[in-house]
Amino acid sequence: MRVVGLGNAGCNLARAFSKFPQYETVSIDTHREADITIRKRNTHEEYDEHFPNLKRKLKFSNEDVLVITAGAGQISGGVLRLLEQLQNNRLRVLYIQSDLSLVSEVQKKQDKIVKNVLQEYARSGALEMIYLVGDVGVQRSIGPMAIMGYYDTLNQAIVNTLHMINVFKHTTPIIGNFITPSEICRIATLGVVELEEDNCIEHWFYPLTNVRDIVYYYGLNEEDLRNDGTLFRKITDFVKSKAEENRSVSYGVYETTYDQKYCYCIQYSSMVQSYGELLDDQDIG
Fold first, then answer.
1. Alpha carbons 178 and 186: distance in angstroms, whole number
2. For residue 176, is it left (φ>0), alpha (ψ between -120 and 50) or beta?
3. Looking at the predicted structure, is the pLDDT value of residue 285 above 50?
């Protein structure tokens, strides 16, 4: 898979993917450290109007491509022009939502515009999928974090989760009941589940609404798979508890070499996620 990062947040996440051999990464930004350096513009609109032609540098087609950007940044104004230049590929977007309580009114407007337009692109089929991920949701899933390395920790959590879901999607589970998500459900978010002895706690990276499909991917080591006679019941009871009318829930169990139990998950929706609902979630007046 090709991973293309646009802007500072996008570039940092793209570089985090480079630790895995399955990804080839490209960073696009206004500073010289980026793989592709573009001219700095003054406004969101200028990036849209004057985004450069990068087709000579992005010489790939008919490939799986993940474009990463954060909507609050001015450079995200160029994301549609970038997607147009990559349209001969199978496109997905990883969209990073900043903590809206810590950004300016201009940045909130930029975020709203880009996020809504990209969701409509996904609904139309121009994108195979858009993954919505919020800094607030990721932080809640991790818990307390030191200031030094704060964003590196967030980035690693996002990258590790999406990578493991990608790996599990291309691996045959030991057991599971996978249900193919509806074709129209192209708006998604990621999450993790804490597997406690007597309780399982979900942490979603974005407060997705109108969820139509949920998939849980369990990673368990051989010893647990062979010797823990309670695991199957715990997993199926938890999955059943998440089923609702007009929502399908499925799961897969995979063998890993890790000592710790893992569960990664993904939600799908066909509905554009409204800005107002997210503001309510972040307690912004």
1. 17
2. left
3. no
Each residue's pLDDT tens digit, 50-105: 999 999 999 999 999 999 999 999 999 999 999 999 999 999 999 999 999 899 99
Proportion of the chain above pLDDT 70, given as a percent: 95
In the chain, alpha helices (H): 7-17, 44-49, 79-85, 105-124, 135-142, 150-169, 222-227, 231-241, 275-281
Helix (H, G, I), strand (E, B) or coil at 144: coil
User: Which helix or strand (DSSP H or E) is residue 218 part of?
Assistant: strand 211-221
Mapping DSSP onto H, E and C, the string for 55-106 reads CCCCCCCCCEEEEEEECCCHHHHHHHHHHHHCCCCEEEEEEEECCHHHCCHH
Q: Is the dihedral of CA 103, 73, 15, 201 positive or negative?
A: positive
Task: Judge whether 12 and 151 are in contact, CB under 8 Å.
Answer: yes
C-beta separation of 40 from 52 below 8 A? no
Residues with Cβ within 8 Å of residue 7, at least 6 apart in sequence: 28, 29, 69, 70, 73, 75, 76
Buried/exposed code over 37-64 (b: 16+ C-beta within 10 A; e: otherwise)? ebeebeebeebbeebeebeeebeeeeee
Q: Looking at 17-21, 165-169, 267-271, 276-280, which range is the least confident one?
A: 276-280
Which of 76, 63, 56 minimizes the C-alpha distance to 117? 76
Band of the pLDDT at 276, cuts 50, 70, 90? low
- Hey, what are 186's tokens? 């192209």
This model's pTM is above 0.85: yes
Distance CA 94, CA 69 (A): 7
| Residue 273 DSSP class | P
Residues 6+ apart with CB under 8 A from 44: 74, 76, 77, 110, 113
